[in-house]
Amino acid sequence: MTLSSCGNEQKQNAEDGQSQARPSEAAVIATEVPSGVQNVLFFGTSLTAGYGLEDPKQAYPALIQRKIDSVDLKYKVINGGLSGETSAAGKSRIDWLLKQPISIFVLELGANDGLRGIPVRETAANLQAIINKVKEKYPQVKLVMLGMQMPPNMGEKYTSEFRKMFNDIAAKNNMTYVPFLLEGVGGVARLNQQDGIHPTDEGQKILAENVWKELKNVL
After folding, report:
1. Catalytic-residue membership of 69
2. Catalytic pick from 4, 46, 83, 87?
């Protein structure tokens, strides 16, 4: 299954809606945490931000926090998702988020690049630049890559190169790798909102499971 595609008009409407729904960046900075608690930063797009959900607590990072709490681990999840985010914009924004200490960095970027047809080499360079900044600021950080796929209408060559990009970057940087964040959700109408792109609350539960399978081995 791949990220569900949509027509140009629908895609533009979705992107416009995302930009209007951008939350205050101040909301993603962690408050003071108890001694011994480590931060897990999820850095990504509207998929991470929980675009279109009634409650941000329905987004998969918040569901991951519940799983962490259920096994009594001392980690605080920070949702650094921003609707409409591209890899280039993320490269500029990451410095601000790194003002807080982080122990685990989960990267979910690239989907908006793909939908815009941005050359894979450009996206790859931006993602690597983000990773470099994180490692430079926090050398002991553990890294997690959330992979993404594009719909067939983007062309076989592009979709193949795009999918491979995440695996290559993860391998190069010794990152824990989730091959496809939307596995079991992408293209399944009942698990997505009307735009066909953003998961419903039920879809977000599956995203959380996809991530948890790998992330639990990192904590």
Report:
1. no
2. 46
